[in-house]
Design brief:
The protein has seven helices and eight strands, in the order E-E-E-H-H-H-H-E-E-E-E-E-H-H-H. The longest helix has about 110 residues. The radius of gyration is 75 Å and the shape is rod-shaped.
């Protein structure tokens, strides 16, 4: 176990690597020429070939090496791989597979599978209990009751391990990795159908949620439309009220304006009336004063003129005899013309008298005005 020169004497020499990668795969390029994957059976009876690797750390102390070679009899590394490492990994994988169905190992419990298998490879086989569970048989498609293994845990929730085949050997398995789950054709078909069913359920749920959302959206849109229609009607109502109020105000303003115009017209008419009355009174007073001032001379002259014009018109249209020569007793001419002339003078005098006209020219006394 220590580097340097040693005397062999009659002893045997066993060569072991410090560490090595252990392959349990079906690929010829990894580990060997043959399929070395490990076959497991899940709780529902489905079979699967599991491929993976693990890193083998060989013992580092003399006592562990002597125990491995002398007590356990492993003189070759190949024997350690096939008789110790492979059975340990196989037992961990097989026991882990009994704790779930193939479908569960494919999706929901894949992380648990890796965790439980890795724990048993490093620490030993876990203590388990059994429980019954109803599952669908992958071949018949019928529901059957299967027995599942369940790992025991302590009060702290830690896994209880029963035994470890590698205890005392100094061998440790690290970096455990499962590379592939190669399910049987029946299981693949079942998983595909189940995945399709799950997708169908998921799609149905999505469609249901979509329909529900569409319903909610429709209801929301309907409510929005109702509210919109309601607000539109409210707006129309408000507009109608505003228009009515506006029309009312316009009518009130027009009525007030008409009333003011009527009152103004009334006041104007009253003013005009008073004006006409005052004008009439002023004109009458003026005429009265004028008549008093000149004794109504103008009217009298007009009347006198009218009378003279009438007499003159009548005189101008009187009949004239062909021969009307009269001789008076005083030796003067007379006759009809003289009589008519006298009649006109008499009429003029009568008119002047009736009108109170004084046709004489008044004679002024006193100093003459230059």
């Amino acid at each position: 176990m220590s580097p340097g020169l040693w005397f062999q004497n009659f002893g045997d020499i066993f060569t072991f690597p410090n560490s090595e990668t252990f392959f349990f795969t079906k690929e010829s390029s990894e580990g060997g020429k043959f399929d070395q994957s490990i076959k497991v059976t899940f709780a529902d009876g489905s079979e699967c070939q599991i491929s993976g690797t693990a890193r083998i750390i060989m013992p580092s102390t003399e006592s562990e090496a002597i125990y491995l070679t002398d007590k356990l009899g492993f003189r070759r590394y190949e024997d350690i791989e096939h008789k110790l490492i492979l059975p340990t990994i196989r037992r961990a994988l097989v026991l882990t597979a009994t704790m779930m169905t193939a479908q569960e190992s494919y999706n929901v419990k894949r992380p648990d599978f890796l965790k439980w298998a890795s724990g048993q490879i490093e620490h030993g086989i876990a203590a388990t209990t059994e429980e019954e569970k109803e599952v669908v048989d992958p071949i018949t498609g019928e529901k059957v009751v299967k027995i599942f293994k369940k790992i025991k845990t302590n009060a702290q929730g830690e896994t209880i391990y029963e035994s470890n085949p590698l205890a005392g050997t100094g061998i440790r398995l690290q970096n455990f990795e499962v590379k592939d789950f190669d399910y049987s054709n029946e299981v693949k078909k079942q998983i595909a159908e189940q995945q399709q069913a799950i997708m169908g359920v998921a799609t149905a749920k999505a469609n249901a949620l979509k329909a529900e959302q569409a319903k909610i959206t429709a209801e929301a849109n309907g409510q929005a439309n109702v509210m919109t229609a309601k607000y539109e009607e409210e707006q129309k109502k408000i507009r109608a009220v505003v228009d009515a109020e506006k029309e009312k105000e316009v009518m009130l303003i027009a009525a007030k304006r008409d009333k003011e115009k009527a009152e103004f017209a009334k006041q104007t008419a009253e003013f005009t009336k008073q004006e006409q009355i005052l004008l009439g009174q002023s004109e009458g007073e003026r005429k009265r004063l004028v008549m008093e001032a000149d004794g109504a001379l103008t009217l009298k002259l007009e009347a006198f003129k009218y009378g003279i014009d009438s007499v003159s018109k009548a005189w101008s249209t009187r009949p004239v005899p062909a021969y009307n020569v009269e001789m008076g007793g005083d030796g003067k001419s007379g006759g009809a013309d003289s009589a008519n002339l006298q009649f006109m003078n008499m009429m003029n005098s009568m008119v002047a008298k009736n009108l109170g006209l004084d046709l004489s020219i008044p004679v002024q006394t006193g100093k003459a005005h230059k």
